[in-house]
């Protein structure tokens, strides 16, 4: 009993300094804490992706032709987009035909209603594809670059020209 009481007293005397020392050592590692928090923020941040709306290369100068394309990245994304649209279209057509075939069985009126909704979805998707194609064609027709400026003055030293115009 006396030994138990002595052990409790020793724990009561030695535990607070040991706990304080552990807390202080954790607080002094602010750089490590900062790096840990920064790593968490880095994992949760957005990733950088190429925009999908760039179709033509931005002109470096006025005379760049309209047919100049950007490097292969937009072409790859364009082909992926077309493949994805084709897959969605085939999926909608297939599901519509399957639902219409199953709905032809007498007594399955609910399946026929779902097939009607699938037909409406297919029609809406085709209308959206046609609208997007028309907007892209209109944008291509309207997009023109300004002609390259033609210099009417003979080649003149710009610094000399500016010095003379500043003195007059």
Quickly give the structural class: mainly alpha
Query: Which range best describes the helical content: under 10%, 10-25%, 25-40%, 40-55%, 55-70% or over 70%?
Result: 55-70%
The count of helical stretches stands at: 5
The rounded distance between the terminal residues' Cα atoms is: 109 Å
- Outline, from the CA principal axes? flat
Sheet-strand content, in percent, reads under 5%
- Rg over CA atoms, rounded to whole Å, is 36 Å
Reading the helices and strands in chain order gives HHHHH
Account of the 3D structure:
By secondary structure, this protein is mainly alpha-helical. It has a domain at 73-142. It has helices at 2-27, 30-44, 72-103, 109-142, 158-167.
Could you list some keywords that capture this structure?
70% helix, 168 residues, mainly alpha, flat, single chain
Secondary structure elements and their pairing?
Blueprint lengths: L1 H26 L2 H15 L27 H32 L5 H34 L15 H10 L1
The gist of it:
By secondary structure, the protein is mostly helical. It is built from five helices and no strands. Helix 3 (72-103) runs antiparallel to helix 4.
């Amino acid at each position: 009993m006396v030994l138990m009481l002595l052990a409790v007293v020793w724990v009561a005397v030695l535990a607070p300094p040991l706990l304080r020392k552990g807390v202080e050592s954790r607080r002094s590692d602010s750089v490590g804490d900062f790096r840990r928090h920064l790593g968490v923020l880095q994992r949760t941040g957005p990733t950088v992706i190429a925009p999908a709306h760039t179709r033509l290369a931005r002109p470096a100068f006025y005379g760049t032709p309209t047919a100049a394309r950007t490097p292969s990245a937009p072409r790859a994304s364009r082909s992926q987009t077309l493949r994805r649209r084709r897959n969605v279209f085939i999926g909608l057509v297939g599901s519509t035909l399957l639902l219409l075939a199953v709905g032809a069985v007498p007594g399955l009126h609910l399946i026929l209603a779902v097939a009607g909704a699938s037909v409406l979805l297919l029609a809406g998707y085709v209308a959206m594809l046609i609208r997007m194609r028309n907007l892209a064609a209109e944008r291509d027709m309207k997009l023109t670059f300004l002609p390259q400026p033609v210099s009417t003055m003979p080649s003149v030293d710009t610094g000399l020209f500016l010095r003379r115009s500043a003195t007059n």
